[in-house]
Amino acid sequence: EAARLAGFAERGAKAGKHVEEVKAKVGDVQRQQADTSAERQRRLEETLARKEAARLAGVADRGAKAGKHVEEVKAKVSDVQRQQADATAEHQRRLEETLAQKEAAHLQGVAERGAKAGKHFEEVKAKVGDVQRQQADTTADR
């Protein structure tokens, strides 16, 4: 019986040792899994941080490009408005110049016609005077 009990005790000690070894291995595996999980989590967070930084940089870049584009458009609009104002002013100046030339030509024509009419009036007046003198002379001779 003692040998049997000694066998039980030996097997119990071996089983206890084995249980302790298994517990140690389980603890090691759990630590490795926790370490691996923590490392994976850290890498994911780093990756997310890099991607967020890249996204923010892209947003800032697009914002800067959009701002530059808006300024370029404003400058072009200003140039076009100035060109249109210049063209309108030049057109107005040409119209006024043309109108002044036409008015000058009209006034010159009126003056020429007036002078011609005055000359004609004087010629007619002289002829009428001549005819009246002739009639007066003819009447006086009779």
Q: Keyphrases for this structure?
A:
mainly alpha; 0% strand; rod-shaped
Summarize the structure.
The chain is mostly helical and 142 residues long.
Percent strand equals under 5%
Counting DSSP H or I runs of 4 or more residues, the number of helices is: 1
Quaternary structure: single chain
Number of strands: 0
N-C termini distance? 205 Å
Q: How would you classify the helix and strand content by structural class? A: mainly alpha
Mean pLDDT, to the nearest integer, reads 95
Q: Main β-sheet, in a few words? A: none
Shape, principal axes of CA atoms: rod-shaped
Run of helices and strands: H
What secondary-structure arrangement, pairings included, does this model have?
Layout (H helix, E strand, L loop, with lengths): L1 H140 L1
Structural write-up:
By secondary structure, the chain is mainly alpha-helical. It contains one helix and no strands. It has one helix at residues 2-141. The longest helix has 140 residues, at 2-141. The mean pLDDT is 95.
